């Protein structure tokens, strides 16, 4: 016989009845939400669901296949990571002693030592989690780097030790019994439809998106195969240019490397680091800007900073935010900010359009009709920044995912085997000598997109090699 319970009074229930009652309530709430959402989904049609479900095929194939690891190179990577970790740790202990603190080799991850050193001895501003607990996590250290550029090298070294230990662990314990590194691929995991990667279903492997280029050399193709990785060139900034209808910014992309063009013509038109000016030959300028360490951070070039500057300003950061995001001194960030928006006024016009769409409609629609609703406060700057980045990221991911699905459905699996998917590129292997398949993949990724009545085709850059680092 059924027992009727009221959610207002479950105190008379035993443990099992309480558990059952809460399960019933969860089901009821889900059903109530479904009754509201399903009519909205039906209006949009099933195209989105059908597309993402179809993408499960190539995602599963990549999860099962994994990527072969060269055993000798794996050991070399572990050796190099151990040395870098040891050297950085030794220097951290020396630096800590300079601040009057006796640290141990546990310093980078210590819940006791690191807060004492950073906040008590060095006098840096305490950073807190959302529940007001003192933290020295990655986000806290990034924030401190922006606030205290004089301690940039020390704080970066802490992050480096943590990262080196994490990557070492991947090569030491992450391989499957088949000698391959496997990863999960979560289709459309982000609100922008980007995929995410993570540990495999056995809690081994790694997130392939988190493997830096310099550590990709142990990843190799199967015997008799080569690797290739086509990438959409300067894709998100190109989308911004077309969305903003800014002819100057569009032309900066069409003229070659947009980061070099912006650095030479906008950010530092007077020259860099003792250079009296720029050459008329943009190839010479590109070589100079890529190899010249910046005046404020010798570990990064002017080219690195130009990429960070564009990213921050395209997605709506003010000068203070640009300085924090890029690591530039505030005055340098402020100067570049004003020059940038004077040169490309359409970008701020795009920002105003996004704000108006969010405030008046609450959603944005991509060129294929995919709608994203924004549930944050429509007047909040954080919601607006989500809007600025959504369409560029979504357009690039959609182009790449459509290409991936076409390859999976139409190409001969003996000629091409998918290995990894990122938001703007696809890693695959193919039989040695069959270079035609590379050209065919590039053609698939050159997908025309109409933005504001104008066709945009993002160029595709591709490299072929014998390991993942060579093609990255």
SSE layout:
Blueprint: H1 15-44, H2 47-54, H3 56-65, E1 67-69, H4 71-98, H5 113-121, H6 138-147, H7 152-173, E2 180-181, E3 184-186, E4 196-198, E5 219-220, E6 225-232, H8 235-244, H9 247-254, H10 258-267, H11 282-291, H12 302-314, H13 319-326, H14 330-343, H15 346-360, E7 363-365, E8 371-373, H16 381-410, E9 417-422, E10 425-431, H17 436-445, E11 449-451, E12 454-456, E13 460-465, H18 468-471
Antiparallel strand pairs: 1-2, 1-5, 3-4, 6-10, 6-13, 7-8, 9-10, 11-12
Helix pairs in contact: 4-7, 6-7, 6-13, 8-9, 8-15, 8-16, 10-11, 10-12, 12-13, 13-14, 15-16
Q: What general form does the structure show?
A: globular
CATH domain class name of the largest domain: Mainly Alpha
Remind me, CATH topology of the largest domain? Taq DNA Polymerase, Chain T, domain 4
Detail the poorly predicted runs: none
Number of structural domains: 4
CATH architecture term of the largest domain: Up-down Bundle
Distance between the termini: 65 Å
Helix content: 40-55%
Number of separate helices: 18
- Spatially, the strands of the biggest sheet line up as 9-10-6-13
Give me the secondary-structure category.
alpha+beta
How many strands, which pairing sense, and closed or not: the largest β-sheet?
Answer: 4 strands, antiparallel
Query: What number is the mean pLDDT?
Result: 91
Strands, total number: 13
Relative strand content: 5-15%
Radius of gyration: 25 Å
Could you state the oligomeric state of the chains shown?
A: single chain
